[in-house]
Write a structure and sequence with these properties.
The protein is α/β, with parallel strands linked by helices and 172 residues long. The protein is built from seven helices and ten strands. The chain folds into two domains: 5-52, no CATH class; 60-171, Oxidized Rhodanese, domain 1 (3-Layer(aba) Sandwich), CATH 3.40.250. The protein is globular, with a radius of gyration of 19 Å.
Length: 172
């Protein structure tokens, strides 16, 4: 039922409110007791680690910034939607498609020559600027976290994703 972590949008701990936190649980089956009854917080066998997931830690790019990336070969714009979604909606010009489901495997397990043959771009180094997009910004946020955990130091999320892109294109 639980994958040993849970993201809560808003919750209180004592007098302090956190806007967005990731809770990692050593005993995930006890999550409901923890959230419903604070007395369980004192139990030594129930340990919680908080990892800050606030917007201050997440780096976003805007439509205008993404638009300027179309011809920039130093930044890799990666759309993490599934290929069928791209067929139905389209893709942001200049981006490549690496579905979220295979992102980690592609970034770590694909040799550079195969990456270049498939995407017509060099495989990113750990310091290559990466910008992730999806439909609305949720999967791209997950992709951003995956890349950061893999050691990529310059990762961004196009928070509005395809929906924001499409809205801006229609206005122009």
């Amino acid at each position: 039922m639980f994958n040993r972590s849970l993201v809560l949008s808003i919750f209180n701990i004592g007098a302090r409110t956190y806007s967005s936190k990731l809770i990692r649980l050593n005993h995930p089956k006890r999550i409901l007791r923890k959230l419903v009854c604070p007395i369980f917080a004192e139990r030594s066998d129930f340990k919680i680690q908080l990892a800050n997931m606030s917007s201050g830690d997440t780096k976003f790019v805007t439509y205008n910034e993404v638009q300027n990336l179309k011809d920039n070969k130093t930044v890799l714009l990666i759309d993490v939607r599934e290929p069928q979604e791209l067929k139905e909606t389209g893709i942001i010009p200049g981006s490549i498609n690496i579905p979220l489901s295979i992102l980690e495997q592609t970034l770590t397990g694909t040799p550079s020559d195969e990456f270049h043959a498939q995407f017509h771009r060099d495989k990113p180094d750990l310091d290559t600027p990466l910008v992730f997009s999806c439909k609305a910004g949720i999967r791209s946020s997950k992709a951003q976290n995956i890349a950061a955990k893999l050691g990529y130091s310059n990762v961004r999320n196009y928070k509005g994703g395809w929906l924001d892109w499409e809205e801006h294109v229609k206005k122009n």
